[in-house]
Amino acid sequence: MTLNTGQESDQQEADAVPWWKVVLRHDLPASLVVFLVAVPLSLGIALASGAPIVAGLIAAVVGGIVAGAAGGSPLQVSGPAAGLTVVMAETINQFGWAVTCAITVAAGLLQVLFGLSRVARAALAISPAIVHGMLAGIGITIVLGQLHVILGGDSNSSAIDNILQLPGQLLDLHGPATFLGLLTLGILLVWGKLPTAVRKVPAPLAAIVLVTVLAVVTGASAERVDLPSSVLDIQFAPQLPGGGWADFAVAVLTIALIASIESLLSAVAVDKMHTGKRGNFDRELIGQGLGNMTSGALGGLPITGVIVRSSTNVATGARTRASAILHGVWVLLFTALLATVIESIPLAALAGLLVHVGAKLVNTAHIREVLRHGDLSLYVVTVAGVVLIDLLSGVLIGIGLSVLLMLHRTMWSAVHSEGEGDTRRIVIEGALTFLSVPRLSAILNGLPERSTVTLELVVDYLDHAAFDCLHTWQEAHERSGGRVIVDEVGHPWFARGKGGSPIVRKDRAGAAVPRWLAPWSEWMARDGATVEADAPVRIPDQRPAPQCDTPDPAPSHATPLRRGTSEFQTRTAPLVRETMSRLAAGQQPHTLFITCADARIVPNVITTSGPGDMFTVRNVGNLVPPHERHSGDGAAVWSSVEFAVGVLGVSEIVVCGHSSCGAMRALLDGVPEELTGLAGWLGHGEPGLERSRTATPARLDGAEPAHAGDALALHSVLQQLDHLRESPLVRSAVERGELTLTGMYLDVGNAQVYLLDPVTDNFEPAGVRGAAQAR
């Protein structure tokens, strides 16, 4: 969703005017708004992290100027982020501030290496449920900690301690501080409901200014922000630890990873908000790394891309990275010139701001999204880990659970049993691996002895353990007098295993032809048994069975038609039943499709159509008799044409010929005398044969077919279209623009469809190949 709906035209305008005019018109105003949002947030995050207050301002300045200039996401604004407050509080508590600054510098260097190695997009492989859970956990931790500050107490680094001590804190309120903190929170909650003119002032700025003015006017005895005597007197703060290098390295990696992930996710979100230049994620990591190296060296907090400031930047009309840079300049000037104003801000007011920010990190829309995708457990576990242990542990637990869920979803199969008594059907779907063997064994071993079991395998992978389970059970069941029919839908994993071929190389399996597309001979085996890999499949004898009073044969001896209809009822009917029920009241096809009765031509396959799409007429040679012969043996075709055009109102008539057509060969070579009916029907093809002898050669993809029968098939299609135009009904519909006549040709051997260009009488290839030639 684009926040600024007029941004596309504005971006085009920006490309056409000098850069400095764009900066003055768009970036300068936007930078001022972002600056007003950034100052209170930077102070509050420093407070929540347990760092010197000025460290938040230093990070805001560096995030704007350094990361803004060097980063790869032009409209992203960087600074101290709420997502790192928990980690920073623990790090400062463990190492002290000076060593923490060194950790920030080292983390920035690691980010630069990440960017140079071009692994930025790999961070996006982390499940969104983990990211949302991490942010929610951070938000809950911030709220639990800052509630103590609002109530006039001190925040603990442990969320559990904050929970346990909260009742005591409620009994020991500090009146002025509590009032100021709750007032700040109240202003933030109601600000969005005020008139638009009022809401032009950012809510964080309005809340902090109003509460600070009230505190100064009333002289409230609440603890204030404490800045150094000279905020510009910055010393190089980093200091390496005297020992514990393993813990130091873990802290560096933790901050680098979290800062990188948060920055990249923010950059992705910013890209979705505008229509300008897309971000370069590798360069963004380098810019973030340089920013953190600078911030740590100057005694500032770590920086990340911050979605709150970035979305404000886009929404207020920023066009280039100048806005982010200028916002950093404004923070620097404000800090240098108005330090006394900052020192008037009550800590409880900043705590109220942080409680509001933390609560917003628990996003209900994210929870609904996670629930919709079935990842709520992943979200909850990550939140619990972040709140109850620490951020890194929570994220690692979430990643571990996501791996387990992935294994479950990709390597776990659905197994269910159908039927009663001595006839059972076991359907296995998904990846059949060792993980499913215990459940599969329990179901198979629970089947009655001497029963007939159809084992339907709809699996995309079968490992050795699962194959051994099935094979051993099948042999045991058949030895006990039972019968097993193995029906593999898709790749014949089980058949290959029984034939001695490797079954564990999924990458070499190749694609299996879907049953609705494959001929019977490719998926049916005699007596229902599986066959060895690559062996020819025999189908049951199709000659008429002897007349007798015996019941219908068993399914394993059924004709291909019977087995095919059984397959339809079992697998296809449930999928198309809803569509068929909608079509039950009547048909409204788009196309009349006239084609040959040849068994190799399957109209719905070559046109990717389904029930209700085409009204189909099939005959030997896809012939349309001349209109003057619309009675007699031509009545069947013409009655269908008239019904399709006059009653159904189709918008297109297609005549489809094909290669290796037996009717075309018969026209060229003659029909045996005993086939009198066929000879009479093919008489309607004589005009096409005459056309092929006298007219300009028909062309297939620009060339005349080498085989005379294929050349005749092209001419025949053209002739049948002419016969259709002889009908007053068809001609009138064409002239009104309500009907289109289309010629089609199928090269059976190459599975290539060609469509007639009516201007050149050239049959051109359909699909990607044809589109490429058209260009």
TrEMBL record:
Protein name: carbonic anhydrase
Catalytic activity: hydrogencarbonate + H(+) = CO2 + H2O
Keywords: Lyase, Membrane, Metal-binding, Transmembrane, Transmembrane helix, Zinc
Chief location bin: membrane
GO cellular component, one term: membrane
Co-factor binding comment: Binds 1 zinc ion per subunit.
Region Disordered: start-end pairs: 540-572
Membrane topology label: Multi-pass membrane protein
GO BP: carbon utilization; transmembrane transport
Domain SLC26A/SulP transporter, first and last residues per copy: 24-381
UniProt EC number: 4.2.1.1
Cellular compartments annotated: Membrane
Binding locations of Zn(2+): C596, D598, H658, C661
Matching Pfam families: Pro_CA, Sulfate_transp
Cofactor(s) needed for function: Zn(2+)
High-level lineage: Bacteria, Bacillati, Actinomycetota, Actinomycetes, Pseudonocardiales
Major enzyme class: lyase
Transmembrane stretches, start-end: 28-47, 54-75, 95-117, 129-153, 173-191, 203-222, 248-270, 329-356, 376-407
